[in-house]
Inverse folding.
């Protein structure tokens, strides 16, 4: 399985970044029994916040989906750190909670979330099918357009 995930990442042209350290008094992930819960991941790329603003305002739907994909890449980096680099220990992705900074009239949060969901299914295969919530919020830390947390089951 680990080989398949690494191969799919390579085929997609994705190099996982180092798992980001927490920015305050929390941890980046928690292992509890057979579960891994990640903290919310922002759309970081090359060490910088890549997509800021609100959907339905200054951020286009395409940029929102790109932000969600970047969050998903960072989620995989956290999951890899949680299993000491051994993707074979990941049983499956159970749930994503997607927070979308959006104007009150914006109602396509679920479409933004597809940027993460589609990518994670592409990379994880059958183990990537998950439940999901997509929630519009008035703002996110550092003016990020999207923040996503994930729940994984260990193998």
């Amino acid at each position: 399985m680990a080989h398949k995930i690494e191969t799919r990442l390579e085929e997609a042209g994705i190099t996982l970044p180092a798992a980001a350290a927490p920015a305050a008094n929390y941890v980046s992930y928690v292992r509890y029994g057979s579960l891994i819960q990640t903290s919310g991941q922002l759309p970081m790329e090359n060490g910088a916040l890549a997509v800021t603003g609100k959907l339905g305002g200054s951020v286009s739907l395409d940029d929102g989906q790109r932000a969600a994909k970047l969050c998903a890449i960072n989620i995989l980096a956290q999951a890899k750190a949680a299993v000491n680099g051994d993707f074979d220990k990941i049983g499956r992705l159970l749930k994503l909670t997607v927070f979308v900074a959006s104007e009150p009239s914006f109602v396509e949060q679920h479409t933004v979330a597809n940027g993460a969901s589609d990518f994670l299914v592409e990379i994880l295969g059958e183990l990537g099918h998950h439940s999901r919530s997509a929630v519009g919020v008035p703002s996110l830390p550092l003016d990020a357009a999207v923040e996503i947390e994930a729940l994984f089951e260990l193998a």
The chain has a mean pLDDT of 96. The longest helix spans residues 61-82. The radius of gyration is 15 Å. The helical segments are 2-11, 61-82, 109-124.
